[in-house]
Each structure stands twice: as structure tokens, then as C-alpha cells.
Design goal:
With about 425 residues, the chain is mostly helical. About 70% of the residues lie in helices and about 0% in strands. A two-stranded antiparallel sheet has the order 1-2.
């Protein structure tokens, strides 16, 4: 009893003397300092994935004359999405939308109205939740850049990303995470298999098809100019993804810990699966291959990381490594489309594999935490997952095509042949990545 009284006096009287808020007051306000500290860290990790992670990952894979252009696009998208997110994006994604709530949110929090020091989202400040979700809104359109790299006008890219964010990303985000119709179907997407990866991957394929192939593709060899940059970028993505997946729990608890563990397991399994698939097919394992396998595993575990156990993660990792390898190589070669940096082959294919296998390995019989609300068996969950995959793919496919065709007619999408040959670094930005 004496010890309890002594601790109470030290915490509260000592806090007042030091000019700090007593711990009992913090608890009464509902702020969990541990959850908040973790979410601040996770938010920084996810932003780290785009700049510099994705920027370096993509920059190394293009030709040297275009290295700055993809970096510029990643930085510009990060800036543009930040402004649009606070203007109306956060509100449309997460604010209740009245009679239209199944499809889109409302504008009650446009320009972050009411999001002040006292606003809460669960056990963390709403300001932290806003910023965390902003980083998802940043990286999703940035992923699309890899599909049309080396041939789109910078101005057209900005218009496309702004419109795509508004008309595609925000509705799909709301459907799954903001109280929309896919969430009510019990679709499991813990950290963005549909919202981020299928969404961006399908849009990337559509963009590649609408713009057409790069000059000389596939006859002219277009190897990555600097795989060192790509590996550094992949390593940054790997580390940052722990914030992406474990941070989506919005708390520092057991689910976040399991999400971190299964993310690592699936990534390692996918990297090995891609490496051995390539080794068997081509006789040698490549650095680009294992880096691509890492990203494939990270993508596939994203929808599942909050509901599967270690063995489920292992299966998802191996399946995504093999599946994405064949999609990015054999399927691309068979159909002849020029998805420059394999956005569809890694993100859409990995997202689909992960989303569907989430419906299997989330079941408790496989060590998962249980199926989605309202789904009483694996079959019902697979139906829900299939609906989520198909709805997202169709919606983003149609809307992306419409946006691109309208912009093409109004301002043109593609750089001139002379600019493409010269390289976008010089033609569009009057700069060079390397001074020889």
C-alpha cells in the first residue's frame, strides 16, 4: 500500500513540478503513448518506401538517360498526393458519406476540418492516422510509374495521377477501409492487397497498353543501367514494409507483432522461390530476380498479414515468388505488352495471389486468426475475396482507361520520338543523372 501511494505521488506531483502532463491524465484522454510512438515510426517507414525506396528501385531499372525522370515522378507524386489528401482525399476515404457511404465518403473533413490536437482515432491522435494513411495514398499512384517509365510526358503524368487518385484510389480505399461495401462483405485486406497493389498493378497495365511500347521494344535490349541502385531501393522497401504491414494494426500489440513476423517469412520464401524458378528456367540466378522476388513476397503478404500465421505466410510467399516470376516473364513475353518495370507482373499478380490465399490461410485450421465477418467457411471467404479482386480490377481498369484516353485527346500522353531517343532527363528536365 505504501509503495502504491509513493508511486502515485512520484508520477503526479513529480509531473506537475516538471511541467508535464501526469500519466493518469494521458490515460483519461485516451492517448496510448506506446501505440502513438509506434505509429509515428510506422508512418515514417511507409514514406521511406516511396522516397527514397521506390525512387531508387525504379531508377536503377531504367536506362541511364531516364534515371532522373522516374525519381522526379516519385517526388512530384509524393508532393501532389500530400496536398490532395488534406484538401479532400482523407475526408472522401474515411468520413461517413451518408446515403452514398457504400461507395464514397463525405466532405465533412475537407481541408482536415476538425482534425486538431484533441482529435483522436482509436488510441492515437487523428493527426497521426491522417499522415499514416496519406503515405498509402502516396505510394499507390507512385507504383504505376514503373509501367509507363521512359515514355510519358511529365505534365500528362501529373494530370493522370491527380485524376486517378480522385476517381479510383479514394473510392476503392473507402470500399475496403472506410466503411464501404467491400468491407461489409467481409473482404480481408489488412494492409492493401486490393486497395494498393491490385489497384496500381491493373492501372499500370492499362497505362502501358494505352501508351504503347517503347521505341525499339522488344528488339532493342533495354537492360537496367544500375542494379546497385535497384538493390538498395529493394532493401529500403523491405525495411519500410514493416511499417506498411505491422503499422496497419494502428497499435503496438500482438497482431502488429505477428504481422511483422509473417511479412518477413513470406518475403524470404518469395525471394527464394523467384530465385530458384529463374535458376531452373535460365540456368543462373540474377540479382534483379531475387530483388523482384522480395517485392513479390512483400506484396502478396500485405492483405494477409493481419490474419494468417507463420505457415500460411510461408505458403503465400512461395506461391507469389513462383507466380509472379512466370507472370513477369512468360506472360509478358507471350502477350508482348511493354510494362517497363513489371508493375502488373509483381503488384497485380502478387496482390491477386495474396488476396485469394488470404481467404484460405486466415482459417484457424491453418493457423490463422479467423475469417472475415459474416463468412462462416473458407468457401464463403474465397467468394468474398474474389469479389474484392474482380471489383477492384474492373473498376480501376475501366476508369484508368477512360482517364488516359481523355488526357491523350486533350494534351497528349506520350513524349515525341525525338525526346524518347534523347532521354527524358534532358528532354523534360534539362538535367543529366550522370556527367561523363
Amino acid at each position: 500500500m505504501r509503495n502504491s501511494i509513493r508511486k502515485f505521488l512520484i508520477l503526479n506531483v513529480g509531473g506537475l513540478l516538471l511541467g508535464t502532463v501526469p500519466l493518469t491524465t494521458r490515460a483519461a484522454e485516451g492517448i496510448d503513448s506506446g501505440d502513438t510512438a509506434w505509429m509515428l515510426t510506422a508512418t515514417a517507414l511507409v514514406l521511406f518506401m516511396t522516397v527514397p525506396g521506390l525512387a531508387l528501385f525504379y531508377a536503377g531499372m531504367v536506362r541511364s538517360k531516364n534515371v532522373l525522370s522516374v525519381m522526379m515522378q516519385c517526388f512530384a507524386i509524393s508532393s501532389l498526393m500530400t496536398v490532395l489528401w488534406i484538401a479532400y482525399g482523407y475526408s472522401l476515404a474515411f468520413e461517413p458519406g451518408g446515403g452514398m457511404n457504400a461507395m464514397i465518403g463525405g466532405l465533412g473533413k475537407a481541408f482536415l476540418a476538425g482534425v486538431d490536437l484533441d482529435a483522436m482515432s482509436g488510441t492515437i491522435p487523428e493527426t497521426v492516422f491522417v499522415t499514416f494513411q496519406m503515405t498509402f495514398a502516396i505510394i499507390t499512384p507512385a507504383l504505376i510509374v514503373g509501367a509507363f517509365a521512359e515514355r510519358m510526358k511529365f505534365s500528362a503524368m501529373l494530370w493522370f495521377m491527380g485524376l486517378w487518385f480522385t476517381l479510383v484510389y479514394l473510392p476503392v480505399c473507402h470500399w475496403v477501409w472506410g466503411g464501404g461495401w467491400l468491407g461489409s462483405w467481409g473482404v480481408l485486406d489488412f494492409a492493401g492487397g486490393t486497395v494498393v497493389h491490385i489497384n496500381a498493378g491493373v492501372a499500370g497495365l492499362v497505362a502501358a497498353l494505352v501508351l504503347g511500347k517503347r521505341k525499339g521494344f522488344p528488339i532493342t535490349a533495354m537492360p537496367p543501367h544500375n542494379l546497385t541502385l535497384t538493390v538498395i531501393g529493394a532493401a529500403m522497401l523491405w525495411v519500410g514494409w514493416f511499417g506498411f504491414n505491422a503499422g496497419s494494426e494502428l497499435a503496438a500489440d500482438g497482431t502488429a507483432g505477428m504481422a511483422m513476423l509473417v511479412t518477413q517469412i513470406a518475403t524470404g520464401a518469395a525471394a527464394l522461390a523467384w530465385m530458384f524458378s529463374e535458376w531452373i528456367s535460365h540456368g543462373k540466378p540474377s540479382v534483379l530476380g531475387i530483388a523482384s522476388g522480395v517485392v513479390a513476397g512483400l506484396v502478396a503478404i500485405t492483405p494477409a498479414c493481419g490474419s494468417v500465421g507463420p505457415m500460411g505466410a510461408l505458403a503465400i510467399g512461395f506461391a507469389s515468388g513462383v507466380g509472379c516470376f512466370f507472370t513477369a516473364t512468360r506472360m509478358k513475353r507471350a502477350f508482348g505488352y511493354d510494362d517497363s518495370l513489371d508493375v502488373f507482373g509483381v503488384h497485380a499478380a502478387g496482390g491477386i495471389i495474396g488476396a485469394m490465399l488470404t481467404g484460405v490461410f486466415s482459417a484457424t485450421v491453418f493457423g490463422g486468426t479467423g475469417l472475415g465477418e459474416g463468412n462462416e467457411g473458407i468457401g464463403a471467404q474465397l467468394v468474398a475475396q474474389f469479389v474484392g479482386v474482380v471489383a477492384t480490377a474492373i473498376y480501376t481498369g475501366i476508369l484508368s482507361y477512360g482517364i488516359l484516353k481523355i488526357l491523350d485527346n486533350l494534351i497528349g500522353l506520350r513524349v515525341s520520338e525525338e525526346q524518347e531517343v534523347e532521354g527524358l532527363d534532358t528532354a523534360l528536365h534539362d538535367e543529366r543523372g550522370y556527367i561523363l
